Amino acid sequence: MIYRKWSLLSSTAVVTAGIVGAVALGDLLFNRKNTLLFVINFEFVLVIAYYFGLCYDLTDANGGFFKDSNPKSTNVPSHANLDKILTIIKFLKSKGFSDSDIPKLTTSCPKLFLSDLEPADIGPVFSFLATEVAASTRESCGLILCCPDLLFSNVDYCLRPTLAFLTSIGLERLNSPTNLNAHLLNTRVSKFETKLDFLRSIGFTYDESIKACARLPAIFGYSIENNMAPKVEYLVEGMQRSIDEIKEFPQYFAFSLRRRIVPRHMHLMQRSVHISLKKMLLSGDDKFYAKWK
After folding, report:
1. SS3 161
2. Any signal peptide, and if so, which residues (predicted)?
3. How far is CA 280 from CA 96, 149, 218, 250, 288, in A?
């Protein structure tokens, strides 16, 4: 009997993460030990959920076991929903996800196990990654782990047009399971176009904007209001430099304005030194400040 009372985290996602972990563990034990009879009952699931890191109110004021302090709470999935969770887990494992991958998905994308999702709903995404992105089984899993929302993207209306756009500007190896590739694939083409429009508004031609984004694909994820526009303003007004310098070095947008760009510009200005953006920003602090004492 457990007597210590733990605070309840009412987040449905947190509870479900524990439940999924319990089901995954049960499935693992059952499949690896043929002689082990594994029976999922509600109390056992909550115990395992607790050991998966869930803080749950295990006792009520009278010492009752596994009683939720909120009698109307519906945070914990029903017995019927456990079958759905198990079905999704088995499907994911059939697509190459390892036992250790499942808990990562429960925490990063709880809706994968909370919705009425069926394997048939997400199957097309795996087919798309394998056939059109040319991703291996492990690469597909890696991309999804980086961006689980890929599983909820429509292949025809989102993923395929996005892939066509990215390849048209010259991006390659999108099958590589990096965080950048995963999020690029899950981005609508309209969002890419807003970045191109911004670059054109500050003096880039269409071809120059395409070239800049191909050299720095991460630019598609930058905020115009909070990242790009302030850096352009400081370049032109603060440093008295030309937009042409960004055309030559679009990586300028990747550096912190407050921690890198401004301090280094001020340091050089105090010494009456003018160098290219690339030389000013690329080297580490030790090398930069040692060279420009």
Report:
1. helix
2. none
3. 45, 38, 20, 13, 8
Helix ranges (H only) for the chain are: 12-32, 42-51, 79-94, 101-108, 111-114, 119-131, 137-146, 160-168, 179-185, 189-201, 206-215, 229-233, 244-248, 262-269, 277-281, 285-291
The pLDDT of residue 52 is above 60: no
**Is 175 within 8 Å of 139 (Cβ atoms)?**
yes
Q: Which structural domains are found in the chain, ordered by start?
A: 1-113 (no CATH), 118-187 (no CATH), 191-291 (1.25.70.10)
Is 3 exposed, middle or buried (CB count within 10 Å of its CB: 0-12, 13-18, 19+)? exposed
Q: Are 252 and 278 in contact (CB under 8 A)?
A: no
Distances (CA, A) of 140 to 6, 221, 249, 280: 39, 21, 32, 38
The separation between the first and the last C-alpha atoms of the chain, rounded to the nearest angstrom, is 67
Helix or strand or coil: residue 59? strand
* Closest C-alpha to 209, from 234, 221, 192, 232: 192
Query: Which pLDDT band, with edges at 50, 70 and 90, does 105 fall under?
Result: very high
Other CB atoms within 10 Å distance of the CB of residue 50: 17
**Is residue 9 a contact partner of residue 54, using CB atoms and an 8 Å limit?**
yes
Rounded Cα–Cα distance for residues 23 and 80 (Å): 13
pLDDT higher than threshold 80 for residue 5: no
Structure tokens at 35: 């002689």
